[in-house]
């Protein structure tokens, strides 16, 4: 009986502050895994402009044209799709905003590429992408009046819906999570706080850009201008500098933080 080994991500070592190796940060490429993921993406979003990806990639070329629905759909495939998980052994995930900052120095070609995270930013006031904002609030079981601070929301499923302006809708998954993000109240710098297990405002760190009106639902992405963007309203915009950024942790490393502590 042949023992399957997990997919080997090509990238840079990811370290904690105490220099304990946590895995690899790298980009999705057009290999067997990349072809499988694009096939499933295109099956779900066939005919949906700016989500279906009909780019003719060369072997091992980085998958480009990152945007919000593409990144979120791929994140869900990595969590739940049997064919994809058989290839990855569950060791890959799309980087979260917290991981973007935590592993900032390990991100390949950081100053020339951008990549959407596994999350969106949801603000207290009505605004851009309000239809999707209302859908997310409903999935979270929250009334608009209950939202007093910005949230970062991850674990959203994405499904084709051409009745909506963007051509997709959000659906609930078992991984849906909303995290209060007070650092999104204004432009600032953030670092990853190991004790808090999240991002905190700091004098030095990664710049975060936010909407002055604190409204709507927006994308969260690592910007090639050396910052974390959380104010862009255009969820479908993409270009060839876009990447799908993964973190690969060793098998059995899910409790590594507890072991270190």
Number of helical runs? Answer: 6
The computed structural class is alpha+beta
What about the largest sheet? Answer: 8 strands, mixed
Low-pLDDT windows of residues? 253-261
Give the strand order, joined by hyphens, for the main sheet: 8-5-4-12-13-11-9-10
Radius of gyration: 18 Å
Distance between the termini: 38 Å
Let me know the number of strands: 14
Query: Which word captures the global form?
Result: globular
Question: How would you describe this structure to a colleague?
Answer:
With 261 residues, the chain is of the alpha+beta class. The protein folds into two domains: 11-115, no CATH class; 117-229, no CATH class. 21% of the residues lie in helices and 26% in strands. The chain is built from six helices and 14 strands. The strands form three sheets. Strands 8-5-4-12-13-11-9-10 form an eight-stranded mixed β-sheet. Strands 1-2-14-3 form a four-stranded antiparallel β-sheet. Strand 12 and strand 13 (227-229) form a beta hairpin. Helix 2 crosses helix 3 (82-88). Residues 253-261 have low confidence and may be disordered.
Summarize the structure.
The chain is an alpha+beta fold. 21% of the residues lie in helices and 26% in strands.
Features:
about 20% helix; single chain; four-stranded antiparallel beta sheet; eight-stranded mixed beta sheet; about 260 residues; disordered C terminus; globular; alpha+beta
